[in-house]
TrEMBL record:
PANTHER family: HYPOTHETICAL RIBOSOME-ASSOCIATED PROTEIN (PTHR39178), RIBOSOMAL-PROCESSING CYSTEINE PROTEASE PRP (PTHR39178:SF1)
Protein name as annotated: Ribosomal processing cysteine protease Prp
UniProt family annotation: Belongs to the Prp family.
Keyword Iron appears in the UniProt entry: no
Superkingdom as given in the UniProt entry: Bacteria
Swiss-Prot/TrEMBL keywords: Hydrolase, Protease, Ribosome biogenesis, Thiol protease
Organism the protein comes from: Candidatus Pseudoramibacter fermentans
Length: 117
């Protein structure tokens, strides 16, 4: 099963961890794994190619069956537009990953954790 762990702090996403394999089909034919992978890679590409975050800044782990993304947080005034665009990317990712999890609930699980103290 694929686990997508979304970590929040003060209402903002701070980390996204995607681990495991769906087991829906054999490797190379697994549409569930492919869907989750494409969305996760698209998020990373949007953050690096469109929003110009350094890959070293956001990607903590990137390997088969385990991807960890650190979401940059900034309150600086000159970062407001980029943070707004980042929020849009993250919302798009969440909507689509939730659709996959709803459709293939035996193969994808989303865990949301609030670390606000």
């Amino acid at each position: 099963m694929i686990q997508v762990r979304i970590t929040y702090h003060d209402g903002a996403i701070t980390h996204i961890d995607v681990t495991g394999h769906s087991g829906y089909e054999d490797s190379g034919k697994d549409i569930v794994c492919a869907g989750v992978s494409v969305l996760t890679i698209a998020l990373i590409n949007g953050m690096t190619e469109v929003l110009q975050y350094s890959e070293n800044e956001i990607v903590e782990k990137y390997e088969s069956g385990a991807t960890s993304i650190c979401v940059p947080q900034s309150t600086a005034e000159n970062e407001q537009e980029r943070q707004s665009n980042l929020k849009t990317l993250l919302q798009t990712y969440l909507i689509n990953i939730q659709l996959i999890a709803e459709t293939y609930s035996d193969f994808v699980n989303i865990i949301e954790v609030d670390e606000t103290r």
